[in-house]
Amino acid sequence: MAEVLRLTDVSVVRSGNVILDSISWTVASDERWVILGPNGAGKTTLLQILSANMHPSSGTAELLDSTLGRTDVFELRPRIGFASTALARRIPPQETVLDSVLTAAYSVTGRWNEEYETLDVRRAQRVLHEWKLGHLEERKFGNLSDGEQKRVQIARAVMTDPELLLLDEPAGSLDLGAREELLDLLGGYASAPEAPAMIMVTHHVEEIPQGFTHLLLLRNGKVTAAGPIAEVLTAESLGEAFGLELIVTADDGRYTARAAYPGGVERTPGRRSA
Ligand SMILES: Nc1ncnc2c1ncn2[C@@H]1O[C@H](COP(=O)(O)OP(=O)(O)OP(=O)(O)O)[C@@H](O)[C@H]1O
Asked: Which residue positions does the secretion signal occupy (predicted)?
């Protein structure tokens, strides 16, 4: 399978803090990765590199067929779908659901004077239908529930048929029903052979959809484990990443984790200086 990304010794240093520390990692086009790690582990920073919004301080980041620092990021970014709450905040609340997705064709948020082809409109409608939003296309984005807004973010990210899809906490803040509905849709999408390579950041193993294949664990900017989920998602490796003794259970491709000794939480050590 083709490689969609290769990081070699990637580090990010900001204000003397090592935020990402010598990360080496490859992702193939048929892999669906989950990135898990505690608050401050460096997940958002890593997504900034993967979405070509940040360059490493050192090391090499190859995305699709380009190397960051030696390529025009404005050509690269449209090939990478990115769904995040931060991006969704830029969608005007008065925008219709259809336009919220359609405007991804021009990499803008907020419809202005752009001319969209019928082909684009049909594609946006098809994508909305796939993400169970077809009945809401005329509704205003700002009036949607959290679960619906999360699905619009993803629909927008897949509108341009990306080669790499990044999802930043897609199930964060959702209630149980909305979470399960989203995980079901994400799992179905991830299982389709024509789906792009996917990388999803989450804080919770309960939010890993079926159909995801690989897991990368981060702690203090370092990869503590990476590989197929069945091998990496153990109480030992998850416990090492979160600094806790854990009990992990797996059932039919879904996972749960809880502290082995509630209250006996080892605090994450302080960040190192560069
Ligand atoms: N520009 C910056 N200058 C200094 N420190 C920074 C900068 N950006 C991020 N950090 C620090 O780097 C660490 C990693 O941040 P990052 O947001 O990538 O972590 P995260 O894993 O996404 O955290 P969370 O799960 O809380 O969202 C944090 O301690 C953060 O305070």
From this structure: none
Long-range contacts for 233-236 (Cβ within 8 Å, ≥24 apart)? Answer: 233/205, 233/208, 235/260
Amino acid 257: pLDDT: 94
Whether 17 maps to a domain, the answer reads yes
Give residue-wise pLDDT tens across range 132-188: 999 999 999 999 998 899 999 999 999 999 999 999 999 998 999 999 999 999 999
What is the ipTM, given to two decimal places? 0.95
Three-state secondary-structure class, residue 49: helix
Query: What's the domain count of the chain?
Result: 1
Structural domain includes residue 88: yes
Ligand 1 atom 8, closest CA: 14
| Residues in the chain where the model's pLDDT stays below 50 | 268-274
- Ligand 1: atom nearest CA of 44 is 22
Using most ligand atoms within 8 A of CB, pick from 10, 11, 45 the residue to mutate for ligand 1. 45
Residue 66 maps to a domain:
yes
Range of the domain at 73: 3-259
- Distance (Å, whole) CA 106 – CA 104: 5
Q: Is residue 60 classed as helix, strand or coil in its secondary structure?
A: strand
What is the C-alpha separation between 1 and 211, in angstroms, rounded?
17
Tell me if 182 sits within 8 A of 205, measured CB to CB: no
Q: Looking at ligand 1, which atom is closest to the CA of residue 37?
A: 21
Cβ pair 139, 154 in contact under 8 A: no
Does any domain span residue 267? Answer: no
